[in-house]
Design goal:
By secondary structure, this protein is mainly α. It is built from nine helices and two strands; from the N terminus they run H-H-H-H-H-H-E-H-H-E-H. The protein has a two-stranded antiparallel sheet.
Length: about 300
Amino acid sequence: MLEMEMKYSIFQADIKGLKNDLNLIKTSVNENLQAERQNDEPLTQELEQSRETIASLENELEMLKESERTTEDQIENLKVINEDLDTQLTVTRAKLNEVLQKLSSLEVELENKRHCCEELEGTCLELQLQLESITSNQHSQENENQEGLLRTGMEITRASVKLAECEKTILKLGNQLKALGSARQLSVVDKVLSIADTKNKKSKPRSSLLDQMISEDNSEVKHLQSPKTKVESKLEANATQVGTPEASLGTKNETKSAKAGTLVIVPIKKRGGGIGLLRKLLLRRKKGSSNSTSIYFGK
């Protein structure tokens, strides 16, 4: 019995020791847990901040994806616009090539017309030279050469009409070149038109050029007359009423009295002086033609 009590007291002492150890362990564990909780608070805050940062980054990523889709759509639209512009550029180049071809053909035609006008001017001057040489001997051969003079005058008239038609065509082609050409080509056309206008003024009529040359040689006229005044004065001084070829075969008086005939411009009857004057005029025309050709092709 005594032994039982001793064992019981020993067990009680062991139990108390174990309880004390357990309390110490619990206290230590609580202290450690409290310390761990205090250490976990900054980590928890960092975790929350990280979650917020992740959410904002996800939003930015969505915005970037949306912006990328918008940019891709814009790129597609730009590609379509670029293709349309390429098509328009191709069509415009084709039209430009057609216009350049038309312009080249018009320039060739204009050059041909200009050469034709120069040839007609030369023909007119040569015919007037022939007419001047014929009229120098008119006192002795007036009745025999009357029909030749009439034919020569008719040839001069026809050549003048052809010259006027060619100059009209040149002006028309020049206007077409103005509508088709570029700025540089327009300046060339303006120079060509100015040359054509100058030639037109020189050819209305040839008698005005003769009057101008006479006035320059004599140095008696300070101001040039207008083309209309020159024509009227020359017609009054040097023009005669010549009848039709049938009427010209009649007598001299019948020829002079014929009213319904063809008007032929006959220069003033000068022996030697008129021929030299026309030769001087022909040389001046050739010199002006060479200068205009060099200006035209120089551009």
